[in-house]
Amino acid sequence: MLNSFENVIVILACTSGSLLCVWLLQRFWPGSKRRTHNDIIGWQVSVLGTTYAVIIGFMLYAVWTSFQSAEINADNEANCLVNVFRLADGLPAAQRVAVHQLAREYADIVIEQEWPAMNRREWVFAGQGIVEKLWAVMMHVKPETFAEQTSMSLTLSELSSMTEHRRLRELESHSNLPTILWMVMIFGGGVTTLSACLFGTDNFKLHVIQVTALTLVLSFILVAIADIDRPFQGTVHVLPQGFERARATFAQVPVDMP
Q: pTM of the prediction?
């Protein structure tokens, strides 16, 4: 995943490439000679531009939807963790203390270990051990009252949801658009820009400005899609705000004593 500086380099490289193409065309095929073909080039650019705009718009919508889904899923996981922590108050003392301690450890591990690892696109299983311990604790609960039975059932339900959200987060941290779609977008951008370069005009400076503007817009969009495509990496990424709020909530509760 590219950082902000590398994104700028990519945009400048694309723009420089299009300007080089314009300069070479002007040198070996002057605009005055290309003007006779403007009618043909015009409808070609119109069809290509419209088709490419639809593709780019759909891809941008798709990756942004996936980004929001990953953000919501991470927040839901954190909310389930807080619910597990609070519902554990109705469990027997030994299990309540264990669940509270494990919930605090899970929040710390997700923020301090798993999020940086996801930013590096690495698999991290530190939090998985805590989840397994939570399940083990809940499986050993022996409720003696109706209140404890209710608390156990609700806690298990929230723990199950949290486990599901965790699996989704792990999958989303390694998901991205298929290579074939990137080939379509890059090839389409190149063809669209090249078609714009073919226009013949006596005002060379105006043509350069138009091609530069088109290339900047297309490269910006492609860089944005690449950045948002991986929701836990890059310049724009999902932050662990939900878990930070959860840890702040846990900090307001005194450490349990059995």
A: 0.84
Per-residue pLDDT, 202 = 74
Angle, CA of 48, 52 and 58, to the nearest 5°: 155
Q: Which residues lie below 8 Å from residue 56, measured CB to CB, with a gap of 6+?
A: 185, 188, 218, 221, 222, 225
Q: 3 Cβ partners below 8 Å, 6+ apart?
A: 234, 235
* Contact in structure between 32 and 218 (CB atoms under 8 Å): no
CA distance 138 to 131: 11
| Widest Cα–Cα separation across the chain | 92
CA–CA–CA angle 251, 172, 167 (5° rounding): 60
pLDDT at 258 over 60: no
d(CA 64, CA 55): 14
Instruction: Give residue 207's region: left, alpha or beta (phi > 0; psi -120 to 50).
Output: alpha
The predicted pLDDT at position 112 comes to 92
For residue 211, what are its two tokens? 């091609």
Long-range contacts from 113-120, C-beta under 8 angstroms, 24+ separation: 115/232, 115/240, 115/243, 118/169, 118/173, 118/232, 118/233, 119/232, 119/233, 119/237, 120/233
Which has the closest alpha carbon to 112: 126, 98, 131?
126
* Structure tokens belonging to residue 205: 């400076």
Residues 6+ apart with CB under 8 A from 5: none
Q: Which residue, 70, 42, 9, 5, is CA-closest to 229?
A: 70
